[in-house]
Amino acid sequence: MTENEVIKFEYKNCFVAFLDILGFRTKVMETKDSSKNLEMLIEALKISGSFPSGGKKVSSEKGENRTISVQTRFFSDTMVLFLQEDPRDLSHLFLMTRYLQDSLWKNGICLRGAITIGDMYWTDDEKDITIGPALIEAYQLESEIAIFPRIIISEGLNNYIDVRNPSSEPFSQNCQLKNMLRLDSDGTYFLDLLNLHITRAKDEHLVSNAGTFTIQWTTNSDSNYENIIQIVDSIIERNRNSKDPKIKQKYRWLENYRDLVSQ
User: Fold this and answer.
1) What CA–CA distance (Å, rounded) separates 74 from 202?
2) How far is CA 87 from the centre of its chain?
3) Alpha-carbon distance 194 to 131, whole Å?
4) Domain count, the chain
5) Residue 220 and residue 207: Cα distance in Å, rounded?
6) CB 117 within 8 A of CB 157
7) Three-state SS for 230?
8) Which residue has the higher pLDDT, 65 or 15?
9) 68-72, 73-77, 183-187: which range is least confident on average?
10) What's the rounded Cα separation, in Å, for the pair 114 and 94?
């Protein structure tokens, strides 16, 4: 940088997902007496860090080929994903979130989180500074409102979806994105991750290369929906009668949500 160059500090409007492993402290304590639990938790953390900061490659049957700039931050049990606001790209953030949760469900782990829209600032150098009101809002929603194994949608983002009606592809192929949100009994909208119409291919896999990544699957591949439902059912069965009332409350919520989906 020369003396005449001026650093420009300004926010950019972004979609932000703040995701947290539910009950992480308890799960860490459980690893003290079980190498299997430790192995599962380490695998979960590897999954959580599977998205590199860089670009998400996008292609579609319409011939669209481009790269979305996706920022990722991982620390301990927390994942932050964010990208600049574009109506075409919100469904890709939802897809990444769904991919993470499905992968963690397979290891018996649930996510809790929030997705917002708002101002973010970050640097791409080694100092990796990341701040912004949208991140603070997402953190507060996750830590104070989400409570259960759900990923809630901020009021601002819900309004954005209503007004802009962004594309649902690739998150869903045959529904509007607003129909992928579910209104909970407390008046909060959350991402309806057990919705039958979400894209969930059995052969999907993550491909990373030179700072970019894509979630790939074969067109017309069989759905993995039933497998995910069975996995969620087993997680509920293991935790619904926990002696810890807080844990019991969280998984009873998941059980109620699962029952609503099956109606």
Assistant:
1) 27
2) 17
3) 32
4) 1
5) 19
6) yes
7) helix
8) 15
9) 73-77
10) 11
Task: Give tens-digit pLDDT for 166-207.
Answer: 989 999 988 899 999 999 999 999 999 999 999 999 999 888
Which is nearest to 260 in space by CA: 197, 145, 183? Answer: 183
Q: Which two tokens stand for residue 52?
A: 């590199």
Q: What are phi and psi of 55, to 5 degrees?
A: -120, 145
Q: Is the dihedral of CA 60, 227, 81, 190 positive or negative?
A: positive
Q: Report the alpha-carbon distance of residue 232 to residue 251 in Å, rounded.
A: 10
Bridge partners of residue 113, in order along the sequence = 19, 151
Q: Environment class of residue 48 by beta-carbon count within 10 Å: exposed (0-12), middle (13-18) or buried (19+)?
A: buried
What is the tens place of the pLDDT at every residue in 101-120? 999 999 888 999 999 999 99
3-class secondary structure per residue, 125-180: CCCCCEECHHHHHHHHHHHHHHCCCCEEECHHHHHHHHHHCCCCCCCECCCCHHHH
- Mean pLDDT score of the chain: 87
Q: Is residue 256 part of a domain?
A: no
For the cut 80, the answer to whether the pLDDT of residue 124 exceeds it is no
Provide the token pair at 84.
């600049």
Query: 56: domain CATH number?
Result: 3.30.70.1230
Helix (H) or strand (E) holding 228: helix 225-239
Helix, strand, coil percent content, the chain, rounded in steps of 5: 40, 25, 35
Smallest CA-to-CA distance from 46 within 36, 35, 38 is with 38
Does 108 map to a domain? yes
| Structural domain that includes position 96 | 12-223
| Residue with token string 């259960």 | 148
Q: Which of 58-62, 149-153, 162-166 has the lowest mean pLDDT?
A: 58-62
Residue 3 falls inside a structural domain: no
59 within some domain? yes
d(CA 55, CA 44): 23
Does position 1 have pLDDT exceeding 50, yes or no? no
Please, which residues bridge with residue 131 across strands? 121
